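User: Can you recover a sequence for this backbone? Please restate the input before giving your answer.

Assistant: Of course. Working from this structure:
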């Protein structure tokens, strides 16, 4: 098939091998195994085992390389010839100022080269070829830099379509005018020429010139005609012909000025004589004399052939210069280095992008067949100029190998260490023991040290064979496949002949072209000329092996990373010698000296592999014979002088033959007078012209030393035969004498030391040794075990006899065979005794057991041993059953009984055994039945009385088996009796039992599986006590209170420490504080003693009072947040939210004197304190306004009235149980009654009664004063659900509200008139005056002390309110607090109004839906706090849902303060969304408390 064809036919596939793991462990051995098959194809592919996957060891981030540029159509030999031919034609026209345009024929560019071949014309053949060239240098292969003058752009330009000439062009161009009239003549046929300001037909001139060149002209003075008409004289530049030519031929554009040198109008005669025509040798008609711009020769325009009609414009050269330029031989072709440096990532991105754009599909979807066809199409095309880049021959020493390498640079993991030492690692394979290259010390890059290859699609490696015709191995680490083509070594010369035949032009200028790795030829072309070619696609993780002198080439299917190296085995040595002779003929440099390599291996034959030693001996013999012949020829020439030279110490360039470039080692011829050169003995006539007496021989070894080295190799190579003969005699016992074990080991050691190859004879020797050593070891174990009396059976009697026969048949003598015979005699005697004992009936158990022990000590089992063992086991089992069922014996468990039955099944059957098994089975059945009955009693829901359990236990006692359930039932009955005794003891004691004790007894009684009548009575008592405690908790504790009932009833002993009090309150909120009695300092045991509780309560009262006084003094000293100069930073008070209260809106607690944010705590409400009641209070009686504020830290409970507490005490007296809370409640009641008595006594005194009377008169006067008509004040009572009422710190008189009652006023009604009420109260503030009473200090101090003690009580008393009003009247009105309360109430009312409207809309929507049933699933998902019973919970839930729906309609919520807990609750205990809306519609955005803990405060009048 011709390369111009569009269809590429893939060659046949090369062999593919898949070694097993056993074969894969020996790389060179496996390659030698497959060589007979693979060598016939030249290349082969090897797929490693699937789990052999070496890690990629290249440091990707540091790997940088500069690729080579490959222009595909310049790689193929025939295409390059065509391109070179077109370059010559284009150059011919360019130097004459014209450009070459190739015409298209049937839409394809005309192949001018093929046309010229058909016409058999070679116009540019160079008769004097330049035969001198620089031979190939290994370190620079594939790195020939292209000439900087090569114009690749010229090829691209000439392939552009030729524009059609216009009429203007025809007018300017005389040739086109002639074509119009006469048609195209022979000069113009086939060339689309566009003349540039010239009329000379240069091709006709070229054909008419003689072949020989004329002499060069000397430098002259040049006269140039300037635009102004003046003449300028300047000396001509002394350039050489070549420099002038190159300058002109590569100028960016043709010169447009007239450059002809003229002599006219010049006055100097010497210049006139210098200008003569080279054709006619005359100087006349100087106006028609033309000067060449290349060589400065002169020609008349009419003397030229053909003559020129006129002076041409621009640059003009004579026919001699044109011929010289066209005959110039082309420079050596090579690859150009790219200018950009890549990383692996950047190169991969470029390569993938190029392939995807070229094929217009993802890179992984492009078929390999399509890429292959497209590659050869591009390579064969002269029209398409596709350029790719290839990172080839990258040194792994510099950039790092893709395989792990054992060096000190980095630590390897165990997996990497395994691959670093593998023979298939390309860093290891060249230096394996069987490899020849391991004897070369130098690291030859590319041969011993791998090269790396980073490819992209279409990047190619051209036809070549490896240096020194060595093997090569290539591993593809990752990426897309690499396509290979291979030719076997037998067809290597045929391939060279075909390529030289088809492209002689290339080989004429570069005889070693195929060594430059820069030339491809289509495999189809080679196959059509009889060259056998194979192909393969190498995928990632696969090896490709090339064999000696096998030509190979290929290209990459896409972005990939490969690594390659050379290696040489013993079979390569003849090929290596032939390669040196081939290099000598080509005058090519060697990479290393073949003679040096052979001699180095011959110097140490013991280190060589046996096969390698034989191959080296053969090569050494040929080399010695040749050396003798050459030295004999030297003597015949008359050269007798000689001196020894250590050639291996000289650099290679100092010991190369100046004729054939080979590297000398054994000998060389040198001259004393010409010390700079030497020759090998094959070219002794080419050294120099000096006399033979001045020449001398430089040798490495004498002719006597070489045979000695050869003999050592022979001994090494033949040592195997001598050794094999010894082994054969020993194994076959040919001389009738068995060798000792030591002698056989010596033979095996000799094979190992001399590194004999693996063979059948060596394997037989190893097997014999292994078998003999195993026999010796087994015999020693048998004899030593018998002597030591170890009871360990090693073999049977039959095996012992076979073992003895095996030892006798081995070809080595062993003295242990006598000991084994002795053991056999003992065993046979023992067998006779056993047979005699078993024959006597009934057999004696003691005798049988003794015989059994003796047999174990022998270590050999006789056939009768099994029957003997059965008899012994039967007797032992019967004895064990008898001991288990004996009455005095300790009862066995059910597991023991089952184990005996199971063991009896494996005992040899007999009447006695059958009877014992039946008895065991019956007993086990009865025991399991009773065990099941006891289990039912333990697990039954309906518990049985103790009498029933006692009967079951009594009956089960007669069974001689240990029953776990019966035992558990017995223990439960004992615990029940102890429990009944504890109940009787605690019920008949001096005091009522404590609740904790009863609860403990109930818990224990419930866990017992016994029916107890006393348990129900105890459970009823505990339930009654819990009911009372729950009622008391509802009475005292606020909703979601953080305190326990006992903590509320007991005095706060640490009230004096504000930090301790606050931190403990926070701990209780967060669930971190659990102790109820820590404040009283009582343990759980102390709570059982009523006296301890009373004493601790009294002490706690005193500590509480002292502590609150200290706290009041400390808080009074703190700066007021209301002061103008007080800032948050200077204040030391902290609100419950964790922030410093500052500015308006801060309130001070009347008990602890600390400051709090009004929006963070529950505050008193002025409107509720002014509700109309008979008799009505005047508005100006400000001392009766509800402005008293207690903080949540001081007011811990609801503070019920004393009457309610007394009802709880009456119910407590009926309880037959003692509770710590009950005793604390009694102490609290006594404390409250005691304080009430003292308060009534103080109020009944003469001074206080008078003051109270004056207050009564003042109220009556204020009520009787006439006032301007005002709208009626609507002051409804606050709803119970109002969050501001819950937990407020004031004590309302009983007459002004219902105790613990609910108000039914809705928020809509409240909103009707409260706005005007707040405005009315604000207008009255300027009219308030005070104090209205003068309280003497003697009267004030006792009242204040009583007030302090009353505020500490968690009980509501009317006397407390009376004392507070009296003390208020004795002070000026606190207008600041009243203003603060009014502002807070206004903001709260504004938010309540919006919630009321939304709540009403919600209720209306429910009515409109017609009372749809509640969704049980939704109800299940609602929080338990929302699903609580009562209208308040439902209303609160609706209100919370509406806040989420209405968004901005709801009350504005303040954002939580920084540092405060994010989760806060409103006073109803329901969560309110923080930040639901924010609008500063009031001085305080809302009155909904934002406490960090849900501890709401509410006076008892508004609590439910």
């Amino acid at each position: 098939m011709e390369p111009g064809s569009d269809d590429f036919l893939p060659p046949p596939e090369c062999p593919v091998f898949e070694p097993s793991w056993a074969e894969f462990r020996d790389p060179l051995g496996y390659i030698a195994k497959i060589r007979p098959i693979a060598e016939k194809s030249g290349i082969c592919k090897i797929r490693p085992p699937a789990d052999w996957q070496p890690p990629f060891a290249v440091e990707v981030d540091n790997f940088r390389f500069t690729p080579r540029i490959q222009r595909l159509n310049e790689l193929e030999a025939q295409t390059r010839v065509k391109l070179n031919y077109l370059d010559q034609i284009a150059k011919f026209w360019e130097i004459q100022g014209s450009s070459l345009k190739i015409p298209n024929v049937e839409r394809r560019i005309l192949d001018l080269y093929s046309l010229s071949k058909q016409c058999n014309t070679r116009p540019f053949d160079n008769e004097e070829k330049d035969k001198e060239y620089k031979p190939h240098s290994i370190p620079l292969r594939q790195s020939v830099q292209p000439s900087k003058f090569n114009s690749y752009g010229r090829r691209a330009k000439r392939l552009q379509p030729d524009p059609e000439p216009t009429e203007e062009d025809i007018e300017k161009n005389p040739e086109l005018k002639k074509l119009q009239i006469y048609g195209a003549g022979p000069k113009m046929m086939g060339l689309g020429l566009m003349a540039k300001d010239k009329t000379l037909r240069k091709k006709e001139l070229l054909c008419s010139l003689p072949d020989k060149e004329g002499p060069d002209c000397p430098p002259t003075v040049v006269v140039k005609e300037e635009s102004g008409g003046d003449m300028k004289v300047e000396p001509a530049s002394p350039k050489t012909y070549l420099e002038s030519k190159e300058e002109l031929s590569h100028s960016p554009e043709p010169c447009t000025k007239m450059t002809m040198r003229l002599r006219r109008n010049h006055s100097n005669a010497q210049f006139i004589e210098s200008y003569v025509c080279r054709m006619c040798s005359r100087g006349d008609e100087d106006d028609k004399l033309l000067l060449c711009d290349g060589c400065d020769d002169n020609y008349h325009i009419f003397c030229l052939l053909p003559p020129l009609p006129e002076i041409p414009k621009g640059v003009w050269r004579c026919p001699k210069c044109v011929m010289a330029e066209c005959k110039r031989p082309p420079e050596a072709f090579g690859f150009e280095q790219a200018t950009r440096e890549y990383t692996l990532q950047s190169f991969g991105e470029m390569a993938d992008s190029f392939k995807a754009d070229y094929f217009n599909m993802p890179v992984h979807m492009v078929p390999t067949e399509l890429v292959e066809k497209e590659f050869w199409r591009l390579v064969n095309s002269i029209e398409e100029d596709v350029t790719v880049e290839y990172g080839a021959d990258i040194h792994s020493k510099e950039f790092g190998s893709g395989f792990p390498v054992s060096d000190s640079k980095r630590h390897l993991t165990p997996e990497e260490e395994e691959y670093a030492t593998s023979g298939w690692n390309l860093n290891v394979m060249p230096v394996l023991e069987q490899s020849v290259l391991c004897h070369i010390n130098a690291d030859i890059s590319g041969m011993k040290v791998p090269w790396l290859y980073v490819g992209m699609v279409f990047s190619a490696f051209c036809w070549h064979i490896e240096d020194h015709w060595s093997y090569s191995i290539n591993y593809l680490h990752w990426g897309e496949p690499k396509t290979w083509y291979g030719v076997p070594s037998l067809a290597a010369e045929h391939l060279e002949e075909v390529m030289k035949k088809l492209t002689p032009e290339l080989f004429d200028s570069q005889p070693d072209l195929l060594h430059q790795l820069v030339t491809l030829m289509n495999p189809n072309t080679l196959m059509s000329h009889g060259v056998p070619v194979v192909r393969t696609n190498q995928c990632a993780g696969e090896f490709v092996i090339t064999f000696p002198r096998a030509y190979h080439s290929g290209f990459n299917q896409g972005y990939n990373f490969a690594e390659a190296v050379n290696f040489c085995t013993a079979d390569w040595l003849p090929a290596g010698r032939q390669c040196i002779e081939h290099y000598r003929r080509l005058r090519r440099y060697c990479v290393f000296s073949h003679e040096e390599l052979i001699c180095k291996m011959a110097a140490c034959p013991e280190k060589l592999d046996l096969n390698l030693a034989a191959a080296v001996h053969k090569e050494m013999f040929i080399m010695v014979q040749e050396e003798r012949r050459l030295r004999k020829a030297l003597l015949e020439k008359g050269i007798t002088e000689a001196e020894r030279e250590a050639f291996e110490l000289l650099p290679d360039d100092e010991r190369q033959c100046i004729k054939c470039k080979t590297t000398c080692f054994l000998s060389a011829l040198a001259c004393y007078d010409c010390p700079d050169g030497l020759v090998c003995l094959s070219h002794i006539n080419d050294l120099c012209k000096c006399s033979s007496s001045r020449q001398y021989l430089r040798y490495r070894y004498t002719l006597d030393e070489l045979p000695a080295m050869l003999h050592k190799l022979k001994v090494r190579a033949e040592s195997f035969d001598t050794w094999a003969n010894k082994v054969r005699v020993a194994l076959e016992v040919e001389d009738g004498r068995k060798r000792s074990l030591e002698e056989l080991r010596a033979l095996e050691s000799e094979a190992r030391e001399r590194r004999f190859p693996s063979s059948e004879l060596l394997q037989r020797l190893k097997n014999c040794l292994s078998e003999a050593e195993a026999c010796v070891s087994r015999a020693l174990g048998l004899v030593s075990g018998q002597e030591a009396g170890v009871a360990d059976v090693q073999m049977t009697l039959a095996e012992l006899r076979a073992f003895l026969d095996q030892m006798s048949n081995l070809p080595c003598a062993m003295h242990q065979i006598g000991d084994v015979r002795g053991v056999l005699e003992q065993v046979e005697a023992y067998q006779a005794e056993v047979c005699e004992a078993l024959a006597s009936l009934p057999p004696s158990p003691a005798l049988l057991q003794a015989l059994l022990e003796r047999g174990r000590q022998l270590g050999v089992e006789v056939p009768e041993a099994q029957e003997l063992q059965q008899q012994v086991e039967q007797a032992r089992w019967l004895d064990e059953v008898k001991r288990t069922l004996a009455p005095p014996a300790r009862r066995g468990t059910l597991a023991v009984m089952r184990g005996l039955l199971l063991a009896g099944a494996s005992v040899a059957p007999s009447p006695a055994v059958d009877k014992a098994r039946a008895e065991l089975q019956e007993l086990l059945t009865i025991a399991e039945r009773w065990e099941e009955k006891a289990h039912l009693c333990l697990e039954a829901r309906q518990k049985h009385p103790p009498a029933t359990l006692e009967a079951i236990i009594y009956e089960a006692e007669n069974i001689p088996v240990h029953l776990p359930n019966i035992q558990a039932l017995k223990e439960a009955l004992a615990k029940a009796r102890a429990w009944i005794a504890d109940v009787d003891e605690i019920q008949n004691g001096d005091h009522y039992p404590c609740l904790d004790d009863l609860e403990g007894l109930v818990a224990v009684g419930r866990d017992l599986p016994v029916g107890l009548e006393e348990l129900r009575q105890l459970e009823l008592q505990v339930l009654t006590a819990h009911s009372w405690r729950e009622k008391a908790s509802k009475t005292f504790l606020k909703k979601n209170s953080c305190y326990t009932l006992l903590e509320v009833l007991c005095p706060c002993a640490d009230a004096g420490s504000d930090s301790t009090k606050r931190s403990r309150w926070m701990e209780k909120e967060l669930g971190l504080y659990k102790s109820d009695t820590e404040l009283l300092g009582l343990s759980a045991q102390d709570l059982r003693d009523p006296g301890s509780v009373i004493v601790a309560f009294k002490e706690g009262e005193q500590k509480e009072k002292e502590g609150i006084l200290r706290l009041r003094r400390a808080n009074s000293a703190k700066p007021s947040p209301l002061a103008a100069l007080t800032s948050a930073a200077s204040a030391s008070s902290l609100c419950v939210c964790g922030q410093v209260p500052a500015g308006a809106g801060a309130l001070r607690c009347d008990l602890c004197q600390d400051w709090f944010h009004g929006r963070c705590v529950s505050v008193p409400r002025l409107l509720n304190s002014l509700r109309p009641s008979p008799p009505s209070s005047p508005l100006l009686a400000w001392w009766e306004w509800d402005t008293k504020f207690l903080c949540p830290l001081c007011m811990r409970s609801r503070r019920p009235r004393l009457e309610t507490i007394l009802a709880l005490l009456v119910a407590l007296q009926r309880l037959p149980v003692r509770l710590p809370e009950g005793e604390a409640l009694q102490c609290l009641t006594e404390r409250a009654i005691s304080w009430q008595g003292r308060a009534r006594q103080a109020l009944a005194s003469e001074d206080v009664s008078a003051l109270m009377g004056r207050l009564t008169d003042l109220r009556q006067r204020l009520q009787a004063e006439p006032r301007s008509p005002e709208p009626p004040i609507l002051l409804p009572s606050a709803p119970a659900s109002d969050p501001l009422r819950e937990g407020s710190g004031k004590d309302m008189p009983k007459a002004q509200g219902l105790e613990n009652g609910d108000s039914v006023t809705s928020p809509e009604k409240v909103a009707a008139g409260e706005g005007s009420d707040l405005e009315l109260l604000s207008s009255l503030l300027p009219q308030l005056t005070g104090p209205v009473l003068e309280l003497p200090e003697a009267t004030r101090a006792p009242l204040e002390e009583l007030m302090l003690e009353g505020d500490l009580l968690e009980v509501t008393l009317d006397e407390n309110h009376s004392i507070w009003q009296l003390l208020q009247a004795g002070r000026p009105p606190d207008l600041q607090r009243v203003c603060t309360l009014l502002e807070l109430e206004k903001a709260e009312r504004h938010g309540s109004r919006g919630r009321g409207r939304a709540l009403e809309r919600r209720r209306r929507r429910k009515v409109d839906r017609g009372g749809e049933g509640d969704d049980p699933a939704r109800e299940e998902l609602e929080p338990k706090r929302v699903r609580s019973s009562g209208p308040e919970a439902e209303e609160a839930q609706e209100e919370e849902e509406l806040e989420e729906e209405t968004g901005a309609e709801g009350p504005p919520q303040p954002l939580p303060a920084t540092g405060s807990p994010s989760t806060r609750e409103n006073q109803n205990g329901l969560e309110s969304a923080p930040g639901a809306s924010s609008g500063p519609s009031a001085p305080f955005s809302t009155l909904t408390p934002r406490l960090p803990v849900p501890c709401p405060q509410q006076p008892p009048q508004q609590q439910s």
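That completes the design. The mean pLDDT is 74.
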